Amino acid sequence: MTTIERNGGDKRSLEYLSDKCVGCGICTEICPTESLKLGPVLPIARGLVDMDYLNVNEKTCVLCGLCASSCPFEAFEFKINDENIKNLEAYPNWKHSASIDDEECLYCKACETACPQDAITIKRQLPDRSKLVTGEINIDKDECIYCGICEEMCPPEAITLTVKDQMERDIKVDEDKCVYCLVCKRACPVDAIKAVCSSCSYGDYRINPEDAKITGRSILQEDLCVNCGWCQEICPVDAAKVTKPFEGEVIMDTTECKGDSCHACVDVCPCNAASIVDNKSIIEEKFCILCGACSNVCPQNCITIKRDKMNLENVRSKSWQNKLSELIEGK
Amino acid sequence: MVVVIDTEKCGNITDCPVEGLCTKICEQGALVEEDGQLVLHAEKCDDCDLCIQNCPNQAISKA
């Protein structure tokens, strides 16, 4: 964490939020005063060195705010007179985003599991199980000999037999656990189990759709999200929508790639987009945000990031446009 | 091809700022610590160059 503060006409402050930084180096490429330097990104990512990815030179930084505006991970907070420039009309704003439409969501949790940043939490309320079972099991306690065979055989363990002594004994069916499979009825040696079928057979026509409804909500933590697109790709109903910070492509030349013995790209990728298959690196473009972290750490220079478009809007300054265009020309 | 260690620049294990970063980053067992000394097992090196790229003293290069 580095904080620089200076007071000229305006009060300007830059804060580097190390926990959001992934070490991609975008800011170091565009800083006009070369005040930002990457540390040893791979050893840091592997936990071998305990330091921040980025070193901010407080003496040379002119507090222009370009780094804060161009960081796709929002790892800087740049304020003018205590107002974050994200909220100022004169400054650029990112159009990258991610959202989950609760109307469409089935609450399957696929996105929650896939999200490489653990930014998604799905809360769901499941229906009352007993309402979805199409029948009811009754045990005739006059007929029952309390042998416990049904209890032992019941697949969901819905039957409980309690025998204190021969006079005080009981058998109960937990309706919330019973799935009406009829194993107990078939196994009962004295035919004490009566099945009351509410719909005959396993047909679903008597089940009230309301009783089967799954409700819930999705929570997407935008401060953790890197807009990688995993949720969008994995969602079975297209409830997740992602707009990435950059558009473009990854050009791989894995002739020299050392695969499993190196795997530097896998270790630094914030998106789980890199993997080693058949001892060669593969970057899945659909999960890649073209941040360039892998390209920087690859010792064999196998990875070229070619950005065609930056989804940053409202770049009013010509000099900023020039500087930012350096990110678009391939690296 | 294998790497060479410039003993002038290398801080060995004790004087390396990360106490032998190369031994930690090499997963081939080509650069290891033996009795507090940095030892290169050239036959295990597969030229991944991670040590070259990450050595804080820039003491490692291609042979």
Structure, described:
The complex is a heterodimer of chains A (331) and B (63). Chain A contains ten helices and 20 strands. Chain A is α+β, with helices and mostly antiparallel strands and 331 residues long. Chain A folds into three domains: 2-92, Alpha-Beta Plaits (2-Layer Sandwich), CATH 3.30.70; 97-117 and 222-325, Alpha-Beta Plaits, CATH 3.30.70.20; 129-210, Alpha-Beta Plaits (2-Layer Sandwich). In chain A, the strands form nine sheets. Chain A has a four-stranded antiparallel beta sheet with strand order 1-2-5-6. Chain A has a two-stranded antiparallel ribbon with strand order 3-4. In chain A, a hairpin with a 5-residue loop joins strand 11 and strand 12. The mean pLDDT of chain A is 92. Chain B has a single domain, classed as 2-Layer Sandwich (Alpha-Beta Plaits), CATH 3.30.70. Chain B is 16% helix and 22% strand. Chain B is globular. Chain A binds chain B through residues 40, 42-43, 46, 48-49, 258, 261-262, 264, 297, 299-300, and chain B through 18, 21, 24-25, 27-28, 46-50, 52-54, 56.
CATH-defined topology of the largest domain in chain A: Alpha-Beta Plaits
CATH architecture of chain B: 2-Layer Sandwich
How much of the sequence lies in strands of chain B comes to: 15-25%
Q: Count of DSSP E strands of chain A?
A: 20
**What Rg of chain B, in angstroms, do the CA atoms define?**
10 Å
Shape of chain A: elongated
From the N-terminal CA to the C-terminal CA of chain A, the straight-line distance is 28 Å
Helix content of chain B: 10-25%
